[in-house]
């Protein structure tokens, strides 16, 4: 499905989100707080739009996605960006070593994974001690009036916009169903904690239509010591995936 919509994916997202996709991407980038020299994993990176935002800071970004069609479009569009590397990967079996990344992030992709709990456990495994995970995902508006209007848009408005903007509008029926069935903010925060992350918190974006979650891998005793900083120079220059690129 994602292979089929890869070419027009970014344009369709802009239309269906009524322009909010850009604002959500900015908020996610700020939450990740990428720094020069850091190594960041962007899961479900699609065509690399979110990865480009992260790489703008000077961080090196591994853009991982399950869809070869998305990766092909991403490699073409981000060909001039030396700080982005595309890797085809299954989020539940990431082809990276333990403690590889300063941060792991995923935007609007966790609900598309068959076992999101397994994916979160993998995010925890590949993140360095003291590192962070940032999850941006559709959520459930807490205000009943806004929630009713939002679900009405999903049921009646989104199919109309999808027919106008997408090359495969039928595929976006899945989008509506996946958003409707996805758990609320509190439940997702609990899933992130169960994966091992600490200091888990979230904040609502656009009245709770989207929620931005963040958690941290507990630091080691050496990391916690005042004399032992985890600077940008500690980030490796590259990560060699165990699978095909």
Task: Explain the overall architecture.
It contains ten helices and seven strands. The chain is an alpha/beta fold and 245 residues long. The chain has a domain of 163 residues: Rossmann fold, CATH 3.40.50.150. Strands 3-2-1-4-5-7-6 form a seven-stranded mixed β-sheet, with helices on both faces. It is globular and about 50 Å long. The C terminus is likely disordered. One of its GO terms (molecular function) is demethylmenaquinone methyltransferase activity. Its EC number is 2.1.1.163. Belongs to the class I-like SAM-binding methyltransferase superfamily. MenG/UbiE family.
Please tally the β strands and state the result: 7
How many H/I helical runs? 10
Evaluate the radius of gyration. Answer: 18 Å
Intertermini distance: 21 Å
Name the beta content range: 15-25%
Low-confidence stretches: 227-245
Helix content: 40-55%
Shape: globular
